[in-house]
Amino acid sequence: MDKFVIRGGNPLLGTVRISGAKNSALPCMAAAILTEDEVTLENVPQVRDIETERRLLVSMGAEVELGYGRAQHRTTISCHSLSDPVAKYEIVKTMRASSLVLGPLIARAGIARVAMPGGCAIGGRPIDLHIKGLEKMGATITQEHGYLEARAERLKGAHLVFERITVTGTEDLLMAAVLAEGETLMENCAREPEVQDLAALLTAMGAKIKGAGTSTIRVQGVQRLHGARHRINPDRIEAGTFLIAGAITGGDLMVANCNPAHLGAVIAKLQETGVRVDILGPDTVRVRADGRLRAADISTEEYPGFPTDMQAQYMALATLSEGVSAVKENIFENRFMHVQELVRMGANIKVDGSTAIVRGPARLSAAAVMCSDLRASASLVLAALVADGESILDRVYHMDRGYERIEEKLRGVGAQIRRMGNIFTPKEEELVAG
User: Mean per-residue pLDDT for 202-222?
Assistant: First the structure.
C-alpha cells in the first residue's frame, strides 16, 4: 500500500483550493436512482469513495460518466434501467455510505438488497434508524447472510421521529420520502450542510421539501422526479483540515473555494487558541499563527457544533498548544485510534473514557505511524508537518477515500511530502484494505 513520507518544519504559505464535499456527493449520487432521467453533478471530488459509489451504481445497471480534462469534476448519471437493485458486499465493504442507496432503491424499484455497510472502524454507526423509518413508511425488511432486503409496493408518508440525530438516516429517509404517497414529517433531523445540499438537488429534481437545514423537515411525495444539474458544496472538513494545517505550521495560508458559513465552530475554536483567522469573502479564509498557541477544550457535537470529523485534526494542534486541552468525543465511541500514534511521535495524551487530556506544548519527533481511519490519517499528516525529522505514514489509502490529492495540495504551499509507490498489486491491495 502507498505511504506518505513527510519532513516537518516548513510553514505553509500560499493558497490552497478546497474540493467538493464527498459527504455531499455520495448521497447526491444515490439520489440519481430516484429518476429515469439524467442527473449531472459538478464539483465532485476525485476520491476513492466516489469511485466506489460509481462502481456500485454501475453494478445496478446505471450509466455513470466521469468527466475528464476541464470537466474532470463533473459526473453524469443515468439510472434509466435498474436491472440489479443490489448493493453487493464486495463493492461496499469499505464504505459506510452504502446504506444511502437503501431508501432510493425501495422508493424507485420497490425492492432493495443492500449489504451491511463497512468503512472506517471508528465505532458503531448502526442503520437501525433507517430500518425503523422505512418500516413505518410501509416497507418490509428482513436481514440474512449480511444483507438487508426491503420490499414495498409504494412507500407511504409517515411521521418519523429520530431517536438520535443521524446524518445518513436523515438523508436516506428524505430520499425515500420524496416518492412516497402523501406527506412525511421528519423530526429531530440532522442539520448538516450535506443534508441541505441533498435537499437542494432533490428540489431541483422536482421534490417538494420544506425545512431542510432545520430539525424538522416536511416532504410532500410526488409521482416522479426528473433530471437536474447540481453543484456540490465545498468540503467543510477538508477546509477545516487546511485551516489547522496553516495554524499548526505557523504559516500564512489562504483557504479558497470554501464556505466560511459552514466553518463557524472550527474558526471560533482556532481563534480561542490564538490563531488569527480572517474571512476575506464568500469563499476564502486566511489563517495565520505567528505566536504561541493556547490550550482550549473541545466537545464534538452535531452541526452546528464542533464536528466529530475535525476532532483528530484539532488534537494534533492541541499537542503544540500551551496548557491542558480536554478533547471530548460525543458522537463515536471508538474515535481515539490516532492517540497512540501521536504519542509515538512525542505527544502527551491520556484517554479517560470519551475524553482525551492533551498536555502541551510537546516536541514532536518523526516516526513511522499507521493510519487507522480517514480523519485519524489527517491528524498524523498534520503532526508530521511539524515533527522533527522525516515521518512515514502507512495505509494512506484511508486519506485517498476522502481527500483529493492532498499531498499535491500540501506540496503546492510548501510542505515536504511525497508518496511512496504501491508495493502491492490492485488485487492484493483490495484484500489488505478489506
Answer: 98
Asked whether the predicted pLDDT for residue 429 surpasses 60, the reply is: no
pLDDT at 144: 86
Do 7 and 386 contact (CB within 8 A), yes or no? no
pLDDT at 364 exceeding the cut of 60: yes
The answer to whether 184 and 143 have CB atoms below 8 angstroms apart is no
Angle at 296 (CA atoms; ends 21, 392), nearest 5 degrees: 55
For residue 73, give Cα distances in angstroms to 28, 44, 154, 235, 340. 14, 5, 35, 14, 36
Q: What is the DSSP annotation of 230-286?
A: EEPPB-HHHHHHHHHHHHHTT-EEEEES--GGGGHHHHHHHHHTT-EEEEEETTEEE
Mean pLDDT, the chain, rounded, equals 92
* DSSP assignment string, 341-358: HHHHTT-EEEEETTEEEE
- Looking up cell 494534533, which residue turns up? 316
Q: Is 299 helix (H, G, I), strand (E, B) or coil?
A: strand
Q: pLDDT (tens digit, 9 = 90+) per residue, 178-195?
A: 999 999 999 999 999 999
* Contact status, residue 331 vs residue 313, Cβ threshold 8 Å: no
E-assigned strand segments in 130-215 = 140-144, 147-151, 159-161, 183-187, 208-210
Catalytic (active-site) positions: 120
Question: Is pTM, for the whole model, over 0.85?
Answer: yes
Full set of structural domains in the chain with CATH: 3-19+234-433 (3.65.10.10), 22-222 (3.65.10.10)
